[in-house]
Amino acid sequence: MLVRIVRALRPLKGWKTMGVSAAIAVAGVLQSADWATIVPEADIGPTLLAIGVVVAVLRVVTDTPLGRR
């Protein structure tokens, strides 16, 4: 199953990490909002854990600059 996911994401080489970076930047902008209305206080830790895991997985899967193969 992981192999299929990696194959499906191959055309996005270099853009996956940028997508996650953009999502993190959006989260930074959202800090000015009331997080309690976006993510319940009890879920903030697991949410940040999930973001960290996604970034770590992308770092393992990606190894080139944007658009390079």
Structure description:
It is built from four helices and no strands. It has 69 residues and is an all-alpha fold. Helix 2 (15-30) runs antiparallel to helix 4. The longest helix has 18 residues, at 44-61. The two termini are 22 Å apart.
List the helices and strands and how they pair.
Elements: H1 2-9, H2 15-30, H3 35-38, H4 44-61
Helix pairs in contact: 2-4
Can you give me a brief rundown of this structure?
By secondary structure, the protein is an all-alpha fold.
| Termini Cα gap | 22 Å
Radius of gyration: 14 Å
How large is the share of residues in beta strands?
under 5%
Decide which structural class fits the backbone: mainly alpha
Measured as a percent range, the helix fraction is: 55-70%
Instruction: Give the oligomeric state.
Output: single chain
Principal-axes geometry comes out as elongated
Order of helices and strands: HHHH
Count of runs of 4 or more consecutive helical residues = 4
The average pLDDT value, as a whole number, equals 79
Described by strand count, sense and barrel closure, the largest sheet is: none
How many beta-strand segments? 0
Low-confidence runs of at least 5 consecutive residues:
none
